[in-house]
Write a structure and sequence with these properties.
This protein is an alpha/beta fold and 242 residues long. The chain is built from 8 helices and 7 strands; from the N terminus they run H-H-E-H-E-H-E-E-H-E-H-H-H-E-E. Bound molecules: S-adenosylmethionine (SAM).
């Protein structure tokens, strides 16, 4: 993580560009989440858990504007974490950012009382529903009661026309950005439709089964939706039904 020379500019640039084509409201999304966290967190200082911190967008948006916040970022991709580490160094935030290569279960036991947490554009990369639930539960277990959590994920019912219509909109973003029809068709068939979509009711059910309360959808762009919620008071007695 300390090897700055292995930072891959090309990959970082591709990520920066593609995220904003796929989600034209990408930058606004992080601004909205910051507003929500600032409204919900009491006091200036806060510890924020960022699941899927690779890319560094959470750190670079929320870090400079909130100098009292400390961040723990976890990501399974060493390459993506290099981007996050690079941004952290550029912003002179290394003293308040802890980046961990691995899953949430690799967090030290002591890290169990975060004031806020996010899991942005990660859940749809996990195919298994039980594993999605376990991730959300693990996040919940590490949060203070009442702390705000934001989940952003692809969602939709593959059998329904609503997802097909939103896919049509998503295709239009890429066509507008100059990609050819054949390239976009290939992206649909071999890329985006290979990720794991769940109907929004099922995503909300997973949040509920993980112990979160006050679950409210606050964001939609193209294929992606976002939910705000709060950690409930006790994650220990939760029933598992998915
Ligand atoms: C599309 S990127 C999103 C990065 C950042 N949250 C953003 O919105 O720009 C998804 C990231 O999630 C990471 N990821 C996927 N599954 C994960 C898991 N189970 N735990 C932690 N990170 C994961 C990937 O390695 C990747 O860096």
């Amino acid at each position: 993580m300390k090897d700055k020379s292995s930072y891959n500019t090309e990959m970082a640039q591709a990520y920066e560009t593609n995220a904003r084509i796929s989600i034209p409201t990408y930058d606004a999304l992080f601004g909205m989440v910051q507003s929500y966290f600032r409204a919900e967190i009491s006091g200036e200082a806060a510890s924020v858990l960022v699941v899927g911190a690779g890319g560094g967008q959470e750190l670079s948006t929320w870090g400079p504007a909130n100098p009292e916040w400390r961040f723990t970022g976890v990501d399974i991709s060493a390459e993506m974490l290099k981007i996050a580490q690079h941004k952290t160094n550029q912003l002179d935030m290394a003293n308040r950012v802890n980046l961990i290569h691995g899953t949430i279960t690799d967090l030290p036991e002591a890290d169990a009382a975060f004031d806020a947490a996010s899991c942005i554009l990660v859940l749809h990369f996990i195919d298994n529903v039980q594993e999605k639930l376990e991730l959300l539960r693990s996040i919940h277990e590490r949060m203070k009661p009442g702390a705000p959590f934001v989940l952003v994920s692809a969602y939709g019912d593959r059998e329904g026309t609503e997802l097909k219509d939103r896919l049509h909109v998503w295709r239009s973003f890429w066509l507008e950005a100059g990609r050819s029809t054949s390239i976009v068709n290939e992206m649909v068939n071999t890329g985006i439709m290979k990720i794991s979509f769940l109907p929004e009711k099922q995503i909300e059910g997973l949040l509920q089964d993980s112990g979160f309360t006050h679950i409210t959808k606050f964001f939609v762009t193209g294929l992606f939706g976002g939910w705000i919620c709060q950690a409930g008071s006790n994650g220990a007695d939760i029933e598992c039904e998915v």
